[in-house]
Design goal:
Elements (H helix, E strand, L loop, with lengths): L11 H51 L4 H103 L1
Helix pairs in contact: 1-2
Length: 170
């Protein structure tokens, strides 16, 4: 079995680089998933709080004795809802800022390794490419030398024949 039929072995530098990229993507995905989970919890908490306030306000409004009491209760309900939205915005801003910091830290942790492995991979590819190019160039030189050697052997035999043929023609 010839070596040409075997699949090329993976370059160790490529394997190392792909592992570094995979680790980076995995950690970044975890951070994004955690952030999405926290955002979901924040949204559910807001929805629950607003729903409870709405139920409480509805019960109070239904128990109002007259229009004046109804209007004063209705006006009082706007303030707590807006406070909840302000708190939500604050928590959301904190969540986004925290996620940004964590993702930056993840990138700072992984990028040096990813850069190092990318350079190592590029160097390995360049080294192997140079070696293969040199081998191909040497094979071409050998082939040209063989062709010249055959031409000189054949040419020496043919030159005698052509001189005889030219003598016969004259």
């Amino acid at each position: 079995m010839s070596t040409n039929s075997l699949p090329p072995s993976p370059i160790p530098a490529l394997k190392s680089h792909l592992e570094a990229q995979c680790n980076f993507a995995t950690d970044l995905s975890r951070k994004l998933f955690d952030t999405a989970q926290q955002l979901s919890e924040l949204n559910l908490r807001l929805a629950k709080d607003l729903l409870q306030e709405w139920i409480s306000a509805s019960q109070q409004l239904l128990c109002a004795r007259d229009t004046g009491e109804f209007m004063s209760l209705a006006a009082a309900q706007f303030q707590p809802g807006s406070n909840k939205l302000r708190q939500y915005q604050q928590r959301l801003g904190n969540l986004v800022a925290s996620a940004n910091v964590e993702m930056n830290q993840t990138a700072q942790y992984h990028l040096p390794e990813a850069s190092r492995t990318a350079v190592a991979f590029a160097d390995e590819v360049a080294r192997k490419t140079a070696a293969e190019t040199e081998k191909a160039t040497q094979r071409q030189r050998d082939m040209i030398e063989k062709m010249h050697a055959m031409e000189h052997r054949d040419g020496a035999g043919h030159s005698g024949d052509t001189s005889r043929q030219s003598d016969q023609v004259h």
